[in-house]
Amino acid sequence: MFSPFLCAVCREGKVVMINPAGVELLRAESADSLIGTRFADLLHPDYGDELGGDILDVLAEERAPVPVRMARRDWSVADVHLRCIRGGGDDGALLVIGRDISENLNSARAILRSETRYRELVNHAIDSMFLCSDGIIEFVNLAGLRLLRMEHADEVVGRPFWDLLQRDYSDAIKSEIDQLVRDAVQLPAKIVLSTMEIREVLMAFIPLDRTGSRQFMVDARDITDENRAVAALRASHDNLEHQVEERTRDLRTEVAERRKAEERIRHQAHHDLLTGLPNRSQFFERLQHELARARGSGARLALMFIDLDGFKGVNDTLGHEAGDLLLKAASQRMLGTVRGCDVVSRLGGDEFTVIMPEVDDKASVAALGHRLIESLQRPFGLKGATANISGSIGISLFPDDGDMAETLLHNADGAMYRSKKAGKGVFTFHSDALTPVELDRIAIRECLRFAVDRDELDLYYMPKIDLVRNVVVGVEALLRWKSAELGLVMPSRLIPAMVQEEDLSDRVARWVVCQATTQMLLWKRQGFGDVRVAINLTARELRIPGFVATIERCLKEKSLAPRMLEIEVTESSIFSDIQHITPVLASLDTLGVGVVIDNFGTGYSSLRYLQKLPVRAVKIDRGVIANMGEGSEEAAVVHAIIATAHAFGRRVIAEGVETETKMRRLAGMGCDEAQGYLFSTPQPADAAQRFLAGWISSP
Hints:
- The protein is α+β, with helices and mostly antiparallel strands.
- The strands form five sheets. It has an eight-stranded mixed β-barrel with strand order 18-19-21-22-23-24-25-26, surrounded by five helices. A five-stranded antiparallel beta sheet has the order 2-1-5-4-3, sandwiched between helices.
- The chain is elongated and about 145 Å long.
- Residues about 120-125 and about 225-240 have low confidence and may be disordered.
């Protein structure tokens, strides 16, 4: 701390005493060189000329320090705060007290210059701006389009802003958007471009309206290849010292708040929002870390894959809210059962994992498996209802069952499915040999997770022939998958592998709906009119929340007539879940989409439901058609099906027709349509189009 400048001035305005701090401030040789000098002569000419000898009177009248400039002996200038105190005697002596503020003013001027430069930078910067209302983008500037690698604003306007972000950040920011806008938070995130490239951006949420309309502006700046710009200091035009101190306090608060927001976003990006457990990405990060430690120390590690048995039934009977409560309660039980060093994660749905580092032997892993199963088998109380579930566990060991994270997860997953086949509520080690069929289904499920993104799926089309008019009246879309790893995977291998993978089955089903309706639109534009297309779905897929709405949206977006789309559902799929599937079939019927009962004739109680179920047609199973010889029992069954279906106003389709004889016999029985190798094998879209060109007739 600098000593204050003290100077005594006599009645005539001359210096009679000055302390060493004053000599140093004025850069004089000694105090004696200043004694007898008029005080006014020590001031900068601008002050001396203007105030002259009155400067001391001015200083004496002011209670607060007065900023002035003083002339040093080396011709430089010193900025000081001066106060003047009158002596108590009759000699009129004055005591002048000063404090050097040159360094403070220099710092303040530097701050102002920095702020000016920053303000100029902001005024001329081309930042990406997104104007949003209730989270929906209403405007994007050219810089925003360039950032997203888009050409037209229509490509982004109308979409929720968080849809532009990487999924982990999207979920977290969506859940915190009100807080982020209200606090005008600035934080980093990752944005997905139209090219699927991911860029890091620094986003500022700027509220535009405080009245409740939730309008805000997002200023997004690409910081992938540059450091973040230093936050601008606020303008300071009044008391510079006060402004600097105030800005310092604001910056500390800003940094603390931003750190809290970043920590919250970072936590949510790596943790499941429902249970608070590490999510899939964090699970892999922790597993990689523990594997690295195990390799270095030579320790063993166990990985458990846990699937909740009976969870779907709780969701279906008690509702999704109860299902969420069950997932949270189950996660807490698992956390209370494992060791302190173990890591429990939620991969998604009702699938969990447990990483067990530094295990002694297989017996200790088995002991934890028993405890986990016992904890999950105790009844769960869910808001007045009781749920009973169990857990099927698959276990893989490092290094016995694999050296890489993906391999260990793959093997634990396979062991879990074997636990389910063994009766559920048990655990199985991967080291217990897998059958070739189990290995094949595990491989199929793993590769299928990437099939849509890799564009490996395709639809083949098999014509349906009107047996009366001898014209094509539609096609059946059949799924084909040519995997880069597995080659061509036929439905006989694909469908069993998908049965227990709800997420995979849902994703593939939605792809089929989108692809089939897109092909319908292409054929319509190419002059074929409305081509009736049938797609195969299961009752479980149709009951997925929002799936019927997906079908309706696809038809509306492409301006397609709903009557030209048919959904084929197997007889066994319908009658195994008839209580829940009937309302869904009614919704499709109301929409105008027809439902066809596939593989008809394989059950024993189907005919009496034909009148009640909202279906458009029945398709006789190929096995029945194959054995339909003259006078056979199958021929009688086919005749009865056709007669009953027609009595209830339903159309009849025969599949697996491979000979002229069977075609004529079916036509004689009154069968409406047929399909089979007699007419055509399943063909890719271009080959099917050439077939249609010679046969198609508008229904």
